[in-house]
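so my prof wants the structure for this chain in the tokens format not the other one, which i didnt know existed until like an hour ago. anyway here's the sequence
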Amino acid sequence: MPQDMPPAGGYEAVQYKRNLPTKGFRPATLLGIAGVIMGYGWYRVIKGLRERNELAREKMWARIHLIPALQAEEDRDLVRRHLADQAREKALLGDNIKVYHSDRYVRPTFAVVPEHTTE
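here's what i got, hopefully its the right format
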């Protein structure tokens, strides 16, 4: 009985490696997607910072433009208090006494006095 021999040209190659399709994106694609997402995030952060700075600048200028009105209100209050203080002095002492030895106006300092004091 003759011995079996391989066919002429040999046998076909045996496939021992798995030929599975790759799942997911390639690394370069994933890096590109992550870069786009981070770029959009930075865009929003910078836009928010600029908006916050603009609001702070607007708030500061609003306060700067309010200063004359607030100063006028404070001046009116000081004049009212000064006239009331002079009237009180005139009622108590009969005459206004100069406290300072100058005709220059000295801005008064009013301390808060409690209503009910024990004596």
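also thought this was worth mentioning. The helical segments are 27-93.
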